[in-house]
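Hi support team,

I'm filing this because I wasn't sure whether my run with pyridoxal-5'-phosphate finished correctly. The job status page said complete, but I'd like someone to confirm that the output block is well-formed before I use it downstream. Pasting the exact inputs I used:
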Amino acid sequence: MVPAINRPAVVKVNLEAIKHNFLAEKAHIAAGQKLFCVVKANAYGHGAVAVAKTCEELGADGFCVAVLDEALQLRKNGITKPILVLGVTPASKAALASENDISLTAPSLAWLKEVNCPKTLKIHLAIDSGMGRIGFSEDDEFKAANDFLKDNQQFFVEGMFTHFASADSADSSYYDYQVTRFEHMKSLLTIKPKWIHAHNTAASIFGKTVKSDIARFGIGLYGLNPSDNPTSPSLKPLVDLKPALSVETELVYVKKIHPGMGVSYGSTFKADKDEWIGTLPIGYADGFIRKMSGFKVKVGDTYCPIVGRICMDQMMVKMPQEMPVGTKVEVISSDPNAENNIKKLADYLDTIHYEVACVLSDRLPREYN
Ligand SMILES: *Cc1c(COP(=O)(O)O)cnc(C)c1O
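And here is everything the job wrote out:
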């Protein structure tokens, strides 16, 4: 979608908050531990190039992305630090990765055997210690991969890593199980990966003790707490986080409706008295799904509910009194105490703030301050 630069609706990204979060994490991690910023999915909706440049200037040791194209976008925009693609890249694209000095995740022995790359390819061996997603989990296959990689000039084993399913949970039993599995897989290796890593934001900021040569810092960089239970004392972040993202628009149309008149498709909202209704120029095509109807956004200084169904490109709010066209509307606030902060919206939608941020579509321009 084309960024709608001639419409009053933007995602505002506070790069000072990103810097704050980066430096707070940097101060927190162990001496010698590398800090890789996770900027997949357009930096969780915050804008991958701007965020990566900011972090590289501050001394990030590397970056993680989900797909090869995200890595190529960073290289095209001058990012020079290591970049690791966390997902499975087709083996046929290995040459493209190595030409651009991009490290790939090796998910299986079959994948390693399929790679045919003229230049040495940097790889990180993925271990499935219990996430059930990608990576080695069987001893025999992993030992065979170890033997295959010995004295193999085609590959440089830059890393070995695993990913936790529940480092954000106060119950650490499954986390402990995964650590045990990961330690076991490590013990099978005779080759020596340069970096062995396991920390995501949760494992890092909640002080999990697993050894990790790299912290893969994702959601925390954006100032958001990954805890599934923010009030639990065992999940108190050891890093001070400042949310960076807000979404702002304005009233583009205002009218009074009368008893019996409906608002939007299906007329799910019908006035039983005179009501002031304002229209916002954003909808589900911008990433605000229909389930958001009923959530309160801040119109001027007043929280007002979205009424009726959210349309593809517009939505309506019910206001206590007439407010002029052009009144600022804060859809998502970066203030963690505001009623319309991203966590509140995620709770309202029965989802997580990760999802709310990364579905914000590219029709919303990103504005940096
Ligand atoms: C997304 C991802 C991360 C970052 O997770 P956060 O919870 O955002 O810190 C780290 N490692 C892997 C493998 C991932 O897929």
